[in-house]
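Our consortium's second objective concerns turning raw sequence data into structural hypotheses that experimental partners can test. To show how far this objective has progressed, the report includes one record in full. It was chosen at random from the queue rather than selected for favorable results. The single chain below, 386 residues long, was entered without modification.
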Amino acid sequence: MGTSGSGSTADVSDEITADTLGVVSGTKIVTATSKDTSVAEVTDVVKESADVAADIGSPVRGAAVAASTNASAGTYIKSFKITAVGAGSTYIDVKITDTATSTESHKYIPVKVSSDKKLKSKTAAEIKIEVTDKNPAENKGGTTYEVIVETTGNGTVTAKPSSGVAEGTEVTLEIKPETGYALDTLTVDGADKKADVADGKYTFTMPASNVTVSAKFKATGPFGSKTSPDAVGDIVFSDGTAVPYTAVLTYAQKQAAVAVIFDATKKLGVGLKQGTGLAWEDDTTGYPASDFANTYGVSVAGDAGGWYLPAKDELKNLCEIYRADGSAVKEALAKFTDTINLSTGRFWSSSQGEDNLAYFVDFGTNNLFPCPKTDTNSVCAVRVFN
């Protein structure tokens, strides 16, 4: 078989003729049109008339007649071939006319091209050219579906196609993070597909239903001007870098911030979120206060482990530094919304007392008290940042 004159891959079907289509005697092929020339093209068109050149060649890509191979007036198409162009699904709309009654009808040839731009079938028979008068776009009662894309910003996900998509159509997601961001999660109808993304693209086959695509993007580092924190009030990011509390934070930095340093000698920082209404010990759930602190890195901060429930001396130190005049810790925390509130409230320490008691610090009064472990208080998580 020959090749298309428009730079496509090799022909992938045998000659399509009136006999191949099962057209009855007396009918003629008027046009053969690919409904998506980015998937497949009609090529090597041969005229029926004997007084014109037998082979009119392939349509020129970009020309006005590129999508259709109409024969000129008084002539008909004797045969044509199908050439693969790109991955996807389409169909060839063959228009025929009954020369006796001058009535017109259509036959359709489904075409599917795999990702390596080769037809999944090699010959006309394997392509399963079935005689049908029903337009594939009208199959299943004309039902088509939508691809619904949901993102949280900082990047785009574009579905091609996205609207009026028939079942079995290959849909490609093009994923483009903004500068300073990377894809964090990608789900298609709830299934995690991030690992299947290659070169910023993911392809799936459209089911007989709408599809919801959800994507989140995360900021990439380094975020801070310091390679590690070294002063009280330093704001620490998920990549371990830091900035002074006086810095003006970008949106990306606010998203990546995980802690504020309150002990520069130990490089000890407090997490930006707090747990509330947690018991120190519970007969049913175990140790809710320490569980919140120990899992803080995974469940809240999104960084490495090493978080823990502070001892009473560490917690008292945090309270005193926060309450001090001109507190760098207080100014740093004020840069964030929905953050830990250290201006009031009772916070558990990890230190235990006698008779099933544990210590908490009242941040409103800067006092240390013991209370039953089954009482509920707030919890902060701390971590050393080396």
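The partners drew two points from this record. The radius of gyration is 34 Å. Helices lie at 18-21, 139-142, 251-256, 288-294, 296-301, 312-323, 328-333. Both points have been shared with the crystallography group to help prioritize constructs.
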